[in-house]
Amino acid sequence: MTKFLIRASYTPEGVKGLLKVGGTNRKQSVEKMLNGMGGKLEAFYYAFGECDVYAIGELPDTVSAAAMSMAINASGMVALSATILLSTEDIDKAVKISADYHTPGN
What we know:
The chain has 106 residues and is α+β, with helices and mostly antiparallel strands. The chain contains 4 helices and 4 strands, in the order E-H-H-E-E-H-E-H.
């Protein structure tokens, strides 16, 4: 499973919908969607500022994350982005892989 940081911002129409159904309803909707895709929701928070929602979820792969993102963004009610999260163990594995990189001009 791959973990993702999910950031979402409601459009004005999305906020109107949120005002009708409340925050718990939206969390349950996201949880149901992720579960249906073979994933799970770990955390879901509303916030002030750049984004309205910050969530952490797991999905089987990046293709599933792309499907989630497209479905939500296509609604026109929410602008969503997802960032892959790496564990400390993932980084420990990565530092052991040699990458033959040359700086520009070398």
